[in-house]
Amino acid sequence: MIEVQNLCKVYATPGESVRVLDGLDLRVGAGEAVAIIGPSGSGKTTLLNMLGALDRPSGGSIRIGGQDISAFTPEDANRFRNRSLGFVFQQHHLLPQLSVLENVLVPRLAGDWQEQAAETANRATELLGKVGLEHRLGHLPWQLSGGEKLRAAVARALVNRPRLVLADEPTGLLDPATSERVAELLLRLNREEQTTLIVVTHNIALAHRIGRTFELVHGKLKEVVR
Ligand SMILES: Nc1ncnc2c1ncn2[C@@H]1O[C@H](COP(=O)(O)OP(=O)(O)OP(=O)(O)O)[C@@H](O)[C@H]1O
Ligand SMILES: [Mg+2]
What we know:
Layout: E1 2-11, E2 18-28, E3 33-37, H1 44-51, E4 59-64, E5 67-68, H2 74-84, E6 85-88, H3 100-109, H4 117-130, H5 146-158, E7 164-168, H6 176-192, E8 196-200, H7 204-210, E9 212-217, E10 220-224
Parallel strand pairs: 3-8, 3-9, 6-7, 7-8
Antiparallel strand pairs: 1-2, 1-4, 4-5, 9-10
Adenosine-5'-triphosphate (ATP) is lined by residues 11, 13, 18, 20, 38, 40-46, 90.
C-alpha cells in the first residue's frame, strides 16, 4: 500500500536550511495500522504531509497503491486526497462559518459524491455519534472545546470511507476516556473497513495498541520493538 524509499525533506529558510527527513524508509501493507512517535520537531507532521501529497519531498520516492505520488499533477493530488485519503490535522482546520455537521460533510461536496445525499448525511451523523458529538451537530467551531474540535475533525476525515487515514495526534487534547473512544473508532475502522492507518502520537501505550510502532529520530524511522 505505502512504500517510502530514501525520503528526504529539507526546508529552505533565510538562515540555514533544515534537513528534517534524511533517507527515511517505510513500508505499510494495505489494511495495516502503524503508529509513529518521536520528539517534538523530529518531523512527524512533515512526514504525514508528504504521505498525504500536501507537500513535496526534496528527494526519494513515495508510492501509494502502486502510484508514485511525486509524479501527481495538482489534479491527481486533489483526486487522491478527496477519494482515498482521510487526514486528521494537528491543527483541526475546521471551517469557522460552518456547523459541526456541515464541516463533516465538506469532503462530500467535491467530486461525484452528491448522488448519495441521504447515505452521506447518515454516515456523517453516525460518525459524529461515534466520536460523542451527537449533541453538538449545529454548533460552530468556536462554540466547541479543543477536544470537541479534534473529534469533529476525526469524523470529517472518515466520511468518505478513505482507504488511507493519516492522523496527526488525534488524541492529543483529549482526556483518557475520550482518547480511548477516538482510538477505538480509528482501530474499528481499520479492522472493519480495512482502512490503512498511520497515527502520530506521543502516547506510547496508544502507539503499541495501534500496531507496529516506529520512532522518528535523526530523520529516519526505527521500529520500536515491544
Ligand atoms: N515550512 C517550514 N519551514 C521551515 N522549517 C520547518 C517548516 N515546517 C517545519 N519545519 C521544521 O521542521 C522540523 C519538523 O517539524 P514537524 O512539524 O514535522 O515536527 P513534529 O515532529 O510534527 O513536531 P510536533 O511533535 O511538535 O508536532 C521542526 O524543527 C520545524 O521547525
Ligand atoms: Mg507535528
